[in-house]
Amino acid sequence: MLRMFLRRTLLGLATVAIVSVIIFAGIELLPGDACTAFLEREAKGQVLENCREELGLNRPALTRYLEWAGNAMRGDFGMSANGQESIAGLVGARLGNSLLLAVCALMIGVPLAIILGLFAGLRRDRPIDLIISTGAIFAMTIPEFVSATVLILVFSAWLGWLPGIVLTAAEAPVREFFPEILLPMIVLSMVMTAHILRMVRSSVIEVMNSDYIQMATLKGVGYGRIVFLHALPNALLPAINVVALTIAWLLGGVVVVEVVFNFPGMGRMMIDAISDRDLPVVQALALIIASAYVLVNLSADLLTMFANPRLRTLYTRG
Amino acid sequence: MSEAILPQDRKRCRLMVVLGDVFSRPSGAIGLTLILGHLILALVSPYISPFDYKAMNSGAMLSGPDQVNWLGTDHLGRDVFSRTIQGGRVAILVTGIATPLAVFWGGLVGIFFGLVGGRVDEVLMRVVDAFLSLPWILKMLVLIVTFGTKVEVLIPTLAFFYGIPVIRIARAATHDVVARDFVAAARARGHGMFSIMRRELLPNVLDTLMVEGAMRWSWMLLAFSSLSFLGFGVSPPTPDWGLMIADARGFMTFAPIGVLAPVIALSSLIIGINLSADALAKGLGVDRAMKAPI
Question: Which of A7, A49, B191, B233 keeps 20 to 30 A from B9, CA to CA?
Answer without folding.
Answer: B191
